[in-house]
Amino acid sequence: MAQSRRAIVIGGGIGGLTAAVALHQSGWRVTVLERAASLEPVGAGISLAPNSLRALDVIGLGDEIRDLAAWQGDGGLRTPSGSWLARTPADAVAERFGGPLVLLHRATLVNSLTAQLPPGTVRTGSAATVVDPGGADRPARVSTPDGESQADLVVAADGIHSAVRRKLFPEHPGPVYSGFTTWRVAIPVPGVEFASHETWGRGSLWGTHPLKDGRVYAYAAAVVPAGGRAPDDEKAELLRRFGDWHDPIPAVIAAARPGDVLRHDVHHLAEPLPAYHRGRVALLGDAAHAMPPTLGQGGNQAIEDAIVLAHHCDDLAAYTAARLPRTTAIARQAVRTARVNLTRNRALIAVRNTAIAALAQAAPLFLLRGFDSVAGWRPPQRPYASGRTPAGNR
After folding, report:
1. Residue ranges in the chain whose pLDDT is less than 70
2. DSSP E strands: which ranges in the chain?
3. Residue 204 and residue 189: Cα distance in Å, rounded?
4. CB 323 within 8 Å of CB 310
């Protein structure tokens, strides 16, 4: 019986937890093994687009997350001096893609997902490795701190440096440096009003966005050699790089404490995997297709993976067929986008900015067209759209 089938999820991040919830709701006995001591996520914010919100509809969380949307009015793209290259109204985005863009703290999403799981499902401080991926005639075997366990399905959601991926595909070269590092903060910034924006400079960018809880989520990126760190602290580094950019950027930096600033080099899988499964083990999220954050789709694609995997849990080849082409295309698009918005070439920057401004003036929504195939995705199973999603966009 389906109720007796057992799944082990390796990794308690957003993708792993979404898969755990979807499988649990399908009648699986699920155990989530997270090597960290707690589920407190590394990172600050995550942007959820309509594609992943539709995926969350399948497990009943879509509208709960939509209620956290904070972007109102115009947002858009700016230059470091403050000039607007393009403005994008939030309602136009929602109308085009059938739903809002929701920016929230990762911890909020993690808490919403874990609340859907039975007590004891998630075991922290539990590193796990795949001993045998299993096959049609045998279960998969997983080594845990409590000994070896068997499972009808193993979901490997163990991140960009996935040990499971190395076990399944030892010939794959693994992640490569994307050429830039990122900083992130999620902090209160009292008395500061601003329109949600991303600002592109020379080999660097900054984004500032409101969260529903009143905090500000800001992120920055810069083209630098891998492995670098500030000689003093990362707040000071932000001040050096972005302190003379337009408001409210200086105020956000001033409001941050050094310990609030997270810095991480960005890596991605430049070479796609041949498959997202082997035996009874399926890879999802960064373990399968880590990509630069320039489209804001890393977490979104992990959520999509999880819902599609639950749908195809009896046929992992179908899961690979459904996910590998889409995620490969999006990952490549994210790499191309990084080359454009983080270019250091002054002539290319001038051409880029002039073209964006002209397009935004002539056809304000034209710049959204490149996101249509990403945000327009629908999950393979119902319910795949909230009651709030316009019928024409379902």
Report:
1. 1-3, 41-43, 71-73, 364-367, 383-394
2. 6-10, 29-34, 45-48, 74-78, 84-89, 102-105, 122-124, 129-132, 140-144, 147-151, 153-156, 176-187, 197-200, 204-210, 216-223, 262-268, 277-278, 281-283
3. 23
4. no
